[in-house]
Give the backbone structure.
Amino acid sequence: MSRFLGERYQALEAYTPGEQPRDMRYIKLNTNESPYPPAPEVTAAINREQVELLRLYSDPTAGGLKRKLAELYGVKSENIFVSNGSDEVLNFAFMAFGGKGAVFPDITYGFYEVFGDLYGISCEKVPLKEDFSVDYRDYLGRDKLVVLANPNAPTGMSIPVSQIEEIVRTNPDFVVLIDEAYVDFGGETCLSLIGTYDNLLVVRTFSKSRCLAGGRLGYAFGSPELIADLEKIKYSTNPYNINRLTLFLGEATVDAEAYYQEKCAEIQKTRAWTAAQLTALGFEVLPSRTNFLFARHPDIDGGQLYRELKTRGILVRHFTNPRIAQFNRITIGTPDQMEALLEAITRILNETV
Ligand SMILES: *Cc1c(COP(=O)(O)O)cnc(C)c1O
């Protein structure tokens, strides 16, 4: 730390992203990226002309991409905010709507707390139930920004839209942010509620189901007024928040919807197979509606399993939070990758247990 850093940032604990090691080729099951490439039409969309056009600024309104998303999801452009990864929507939402504090589960996406700390927002962390599910009653009639990932991460579990609606309905004077980063892998979207409730913000990303994590593209649905607030924050920080190539790739991605539906279905199939195999090996596997599994074994420590897998060239995500330290979060890869994972786990269990 230099002696110049502002006082309010000195104690800030930054978010720790999953490892992206370059020392060898790992089977990477640690950051919930897609194991599949973008659709062929998307890859083909970038050419010399697109690169040459980089001399011009990108469209700060992201009008083309908004129109395509609006058509695909049956909303209006004014209901959509587009961002540099969904982390940026989360950032702006905490900045804009977190003034009276924020509430979210004790086990959830780690970035929520970081944004809270960044803006000096007091964060209330509500323990998940014993079975790691969200009790929606904990979020009824609250007096602060409510933030829920649905499905939740890293548990993979979801709650029904009827419960989300109760939360939104009973918090009319506060924003309820539903992070749907994983909704395309079998979750239930609450998008249809944005026409009824002006306090609901639904956050999405191209990083997981749209095979575009490195492109950094996210978006949000909400009432025109909520979206206008986010635009105000954006135009006060970084008007050209999304680069030209990514906007272009985003549009091509929306056009290739069928490809992504197919890949999401494949991942769900692989997930079911992997969960069954892990269960047969003695793991407890939480019910997942995402592109990852959260699993623990009674006979091997979560941190140890993580390390043993890493030495065998397989990366999974381990969290040190004591409540979930026994677990590992395993991204669903290709069937081949999951076979390699299960083979490695079987060896490790045979050697250490
Ligand atoms: C991956 C993830 C994000 C961030 O996604 P980006 O769009 O890549 O910034 C947001 N929320 C949750 C719950 C995630 O798992």
Summary: Residues 32, 85-87, 109, 149, 153, 179, 181, 205, 207, 213, 218 surround pyridoxal-5'-phosphate (CB under 6 Å). The chain has a mean pLDDT of 97.
